[in-house]
Design a protein that fits this description.
mainly alpha, 406 residues
Length: 406
Amino acid sequence: MPSSIQLLRNRFERAILVSNWFSQAGIWVRNFAVLLYVMEMTKGNAFAVSLISVAEYGPIFAFSFIAGVFADRWRPKRIIVWCECLSALSVFIVFLVLKTGSWEAVFLATLCSSILSQFAQPSGMKLFKFHVRDEEAPIAMSMLQTLFSVFMILGPVLGTYMFQQLGIEQAMLATSLFFLISALAMLFVPPDPISSSNKSGTEPTLLREMADGIRYVLRSRSLMWLSLCFMFVGLGVGLISPLGIFLVTERLGLTADILQWITIPYGLGEMIGGVVTFMLASKITPGRLLMTGLAVNGVGIIISGLSTALWLTMISQFLIALFQPAIFIGNHTLVMQQTEQAYIGRVTGIRTPLMTGSMLIMMSLSGVLKNLFSLTFVYAMAGLCFLIGLLMIIPLLGEKKIISKI
């Protein structure tokens, strides 16, 4: 496998990393500035705050699959450039509207750029398929995941700082600028291959292409198992996402403010895990990354639910976060390697709402399950979801076309 230094000489990889850096900065500043502004304007109204989540997550279900079809149909580089430019324009318009005193316009900023992000995401995977060789895919995915891990830590800090120091109007202006720079960085990506456009005389309908994408996933044994694995990860994450505070108050018997001490090792683990996985991506196959990440996360989550000692909970949280990047890098890399270029957009468009949907469903049920059973039971269920995801990978060991990648 090539080294990370060699890959960074790739013009596409450099451009995509710069573009994603500014895009992530824009997303995090937008999300936290809007959240804090709505909290301030509504005095913490729960309904108003929940509308932000609707604006963020709703487009995933409404547009993700359709966006995947367009990523396969149109030129992906052009789609991303236009999406980033339109995101910058929509946020800039909100900046102008805010000057009139209509504070509700901030919801529009979140909704518009979230919709456009759904179109950009599968197009990004399509570009990876065009410009990155299969043997380079693990390192390329790990670079991107490391960037996302860094922003999981720095993003909330950056967004909060921008809002508190500059106010909502200037934060929106900065968000617009970040998206615009992201679009400019994409201009340095090599042109899309001619084959990315449909040149036949009769172009299939949108519905037919959507159906073809679903059939393609259902026909592919490897993609089916990887998608089911991804879904079980979503179920496990959704079960425990809202319940972290209860680890402190119920299992450890401490006050709620101790939660910050648990989030510190988790954040460090996320960042270190991204860097370590990036360094090892050329030495460990994506299948082994995925299986190791699932096993450690499953056991770590169960230990977190059983622990009554702060030190043990902190260690388990650190290990969970440390190996999380391995799950996403391994799964995404295998999917990219096992998907034909013509279908990568639609496959991505199917998988994204599959994981997000399962996560949101379990987030809505986690509190009910905790009250019906116990916190330990819910964490055991979540850990079991990760271990079931691991079982989903075992059938792939017999696939001749994928066994060398496991």
